[in-house]
Amino acid sequence: MYKRQGYRTYRPLGLPIHRYSEWVTSQEREAARELSRSIPLADIAAYRVDGVAVGEHALAGALRYFAKGDLDDEPHGEAVLRRYLEAALLTTYALHRLVDRFGFQIACFHHGIYVPQGLVGEVARHREVRVVNWHTAYRKQCFIFSHHDCYHHTLMSESTAVWENMKWTPELERQVMDYLESRRRGTRDWISFHEKPEEDLATIAKDLGIDFSKPCIGLLTNVVWDAQLHYPANAFPNMLRWVMETIGYFMKRPDLQLIIRVHPAEVRGTLPSRQPVVKEIRKHFPVLPENIIVIPPECPVSTYAVMEQCDSVIIYGTKTGVELSSLGVPIIVAGEAWIRNKGLTLDAHTAEQYFQLLDRLPLGKRMDEDSVRRARMYAYHFFFRRMIPLSMMEPTGGWPPYRLRLSGLDDLMPGRDAGLDVICRGILEGRDFIYRAELENPSSLPA
To answer: How far is the C-alpha of 309 from the C-alpha of 218, rounded, in Å?
Structure first.
């Protein structure tokens, strides 16, 4: 279906169209084939070519293909991973030759991870070509752009100086809190997972066996295969290891209830997971004690309603930490969540440090007023400034999630769309990809 999608998109523009096959030699083809077949399986993930992380993106691509967090019990996992490695090598060779031929100054492309996009970025950075990555954001009609690397990395390293000195007003707080309330049902986002979530606490407590009068600690998972890249700051090698070790800890803490909310995207995402967290938990712990409650991904219970009742919430890579901290819920971060490094959360960099944080539970108090205000400022920056609105992108309610709505080229001229101006200045001049929503007329923002 998508085989010639790129060709159909760019051909009407009259632009030169290059194919990978034109930019690799027969010797490189054979070298890629031989290497991908002969390299020890255990060496693939860390394999580099002149500093280019070929193996990391090959593995991330294979995990995404299988929609799993590892390939251990996948009959064709090794064969597919080796094919991804071969494709990654060919992409690397082709991109080096393209840079040699055309001397690119800027590379702007989608996503920035997996194969081939991850290797495009790796080669570009290695060759000192400025990189811009983009992806659809969460809010409808919005996109997120980042310099140098994909947003999975840059949002964690972004300087707090770009948002913490923003002039904060009651109107901005109202805007962000209204939006966060809408996220309970996803009415202002491209994707929603539960249209009518169960929010009645009495019903939730009865159905799930939770006693909200006792100390509760929330745990939010993310999809196991998504963006499986290397993050040096993570306290655990992967999310599943974190989940299992956390359960093991709470089995020794009967004074606390651990409520594990498995991400609904496991079953309702664009690529349903083939390695369900619930199944993995049952494999490691056939019987769980009464103080550990697992909410499966298909359960219509409101994540927000449950987590707001918790003393604190532990996360690995979910963005929900941005939302819950804005409600004053203390957050412990063990992985690559974007709320890390913002002066708002308890961040663990090692497993030892992580368990020391758990030993402090229950915390017995909400975040203080200044911290909550700071959290809401960051949420505003994250959802309204880093997510850049484009008025010409019309939601479809299906796939693809948007279509272009233009009456002519005049719609693309400077000054016609503030979001497009931010994007163009960022690409051409290297400016920050920050849409100053606080300076715009609120009525001009996507509903």
So the answer is: 9
Chain position carrying tokens 């309610």: 397
Cα 223 to the center of its chain, rounded Å: 10
Query: Could you give the CA distance from residue 174 to residue 33 in angstroms, rounded to a whole number?
Result: 57
pTM exceeding the 0.85 threshold for the entire prediction:
yes
Cβ–Cβ under 8 Å, residues 337 and 321: yes
The secondary structure of 134-169, three-state, reads EEECCECCEEEEEECCCHHHHHHHCCHHHCCCCCCC
Q: d(Cα 89, Cα 23) in Å, to the nearest integer? A: 12
Distance CA 44, CA 47 (A): 5
The torsion defined by the Cα of 403, 322, 302 and 363, in degrees rounded to 10, comes to 170
Burial class (CB in 10 A: 0-12, 13-18, 19+), 352: exposed
Give the tens place of pLDDT for each residue, 73-130: 899 999 999 999 999 999 999 999 999 999 999 999 998 888 999 999 999 999 999 9
Tokens of 43: 């060496």
